[in-house]
From TrEMBL:
Protein name: LysR family transcriptional regulator
Assigned protein family: Belongs to the LysR transcriptional regulatory family.
Keyword Transcription regulation: yes
Organism, as annotated: Rhizobium deserti
Domain of life, source organism: Bacteria
InterPro entries in UniProt: LysR-type_TF_proteobact-type, LysR_HTH_N, LysR_subst-bd, WH-like_DNA-bd_sf, WH_DNA-bd_sf
């Protein structure tokens, strides 16, 4: 007998709907609660149980006023049916995970360009059955309205309904091309920066950094302002000699080694906002989210809850 014929025979011999009703009623020891769980009337529950009993040829429940209990046959059957439905539920969940085997990562453009782009290949080698789609935006997404499994975002990690893991500290400092620095004989003190064009002087990071450098009253008004929208783009402009950008230096170590950027001063500033991995608390046990979380744990030394 082929598998399809065998499956058809089993489905006719054992009404699956009745088995589902029996499992719920046996777990709750109540036809009423089983009906509430499955969206059935108590009469419909009784009918399905009777149908199963007729199919098996023996009673499964003892009916008493306002109370039911399992017969000996019901006691033997209940754990096996419960196990069978658990296996089916796990199988469907596993199939759904496979069907949804694409990990959708939402990230800031800078973290995507300066870190994720360099490491996602390794993640996929370690998880060959999982595809990855990377979306970038400076906006903080709403997981309920955006197709995303996880987000790399900046902030304090205290978003309601989300589980957050600290990734890296987001401190910042001015960086520029060595050729631009040479036009004023080098940058040796914070005041020297004011001789050069600052990329996006309206960025709050500039005032925070100058305050950390002992210049809280610096006046940046009236300077030409160009907004690039992402730190990675500002860095590209700085490499091209277009001005001084304020950047997270760890993202640009390659540019420093290649002589395209310099960090002229050791002063670092911080606005209290860092990089975090975030995802809905309700999805913390998702296989693909666990895989990505574990990858970051082994790749980023500062990763923590």
């Amino acid at each position: 007998m082929d598998q399809e014929s065998s499956s058809m025979k089993i489905s006719k011999q054992f009404p699956l709907n009745a088995l589902r009703v029996f499992e719920s009623a046996a777990r709750h020891m109540s036809f009423t609660k089983a009906g509430e769980e499955l969206g059935l009337t108590q009469t419909a529950v009784s009918y399905q149980i009777k149908l199963l009993e007729d199919t098996l040829g023996e009673p499964l429940f003892l009916r008493r006023p306002r109370q039911v209990s399992l017969t000996e046959a019901g006691e033997r059957l209940a754990p096996k049916i419960a196990e069978a439905f658990t296996i089916m539920t796990d199988a469907v969940a596993g199939l759904k995970e496979t069907a949804e085997g694409t990990l959708v990562i939402h990230s800031t453009a800078t973290f995507a360009a300066r870190w994720l782009a360099r490491h996602l290949g390794t993640f996929q080698l370690q998880n060959p059955g999982m595809a990855v789609r990377l979306e970038t935006s400076q906006e903080i997404i709403d997981f309920g309205k955006t197709e995303a499994d996880v987000a790399i975002r900046t902030g304090r990690g205290d978003w309601p309904g989300l589980r957050s893991h600290f990734l890296v500290k987001s401190h910042f400092t001015p960086m520029l091309s060595p050729d631009l620095a040479a036009t004023i004989g080098g940058v040796h003190k914070p005041q020297d920066l004011l001789k050069l064009r600052l990329i996006d002087p309206g960025d709050p990071w500039w005032r925070i950094w100058f305050a950390a450098a002992g210049m809280p009253d610096v006046d940046l008004s009236g300077r030409p302002s160009t907004k690039f929208g992402a730190q990675a783009v500002e860095a590209a402009a700085a490499v091209a000699g277009q001005g001084v950008a304020i950047l997270r230096p760890e993202f640009y170590t390659d540019d420093v080694l290649l002589g395209r950027l310099i960090q002229p001063l050791p002063i670092l500033a911080h606005d209290g906002s860092d990089y975090w991995l975030a995802y809905p608390e309700s999805r913390r046990n998702s296989r693909k989210i666990r895989a990505f979380r574990d990858f970051l744990l082994t790749t980023i030394q500062s990763f923590r809850d």
